[in-house]
Write the structure tokens for this entry.
Amino acid sequence: MSQELALKLEPNWCTIKDIWDVSVDFFGREGLGPDAAYALSMVTQELLENAVKYGRFSSSDKIDLGMRIGEGDVTIEVKSPVSPDDDQLRHLDDTIQWIRGFQDPFEAYVDRLKLLSTQPQREGGSGLGLVRIAYEGQAILDFYVDESGVLAISAVHRR
Amino acid sequence: MERSVFTEKTLQIEVEETTDTVHLRWTGRSNEREPGRFLAPILDRALASAEASGKLLVLDFRALDYMNSSTFTPLVRLMESARTGLARVRMVYRSGLKWQQLSFSAMKVFETLDRRIELRGE
């Protein structure tokens, strides 16, 4: 038996910050321990932040957030509209493939921290959020873009 | 002893300068879209002050509830600046909190052999 929570969110920073308490409450209420609830809430926040930063929203578009607790895993999925030829999609694909190239996501995380330490401050695009999902969230990332140009990115955490 | 408090929405940083240390206590949540805009000037000033005075710069995260990945960039840039300079820097975190243990233990890569720059879990 699985437990699910699905939400439609306005694509703005204030709204997604408020989801922190919602996700901690959901994961905690469904029996996950505080460390797991925290880690999965972090995963949720990082995915939502990416959606707001890189989504191409029209005035009526929303972010779809799904959180599902299954028997053996927890899946967090975030959907947002993108441009199919967007450089961000290539960057997303490259980053996920790059993470998968490491046996241990800790190594990818340290590698990315070292890279960031020598780069000038700039907004977004570092990929650290995705690496953090793999490392701290112990989750496997995947994504697809459907025919209507909606990006669905998921993080699956084995329990 | 000098004390200043900087607040940006859900994040507060208390800066206290004693005879031996420049101490930055972080509380709340760092979850802004561009946290570097708020953090970089505070961190740059604290690092410069510590380096000029020979005081230990302490970044104390034990009371911090959350920080997003964008918050790491100004922190690792400070560590790299410190590594190539003369300042003594200590980052203190709660090793009993799993997220802090994971986040900050990875930053041990910036430690120096002489412990001039160190990460300390308490």
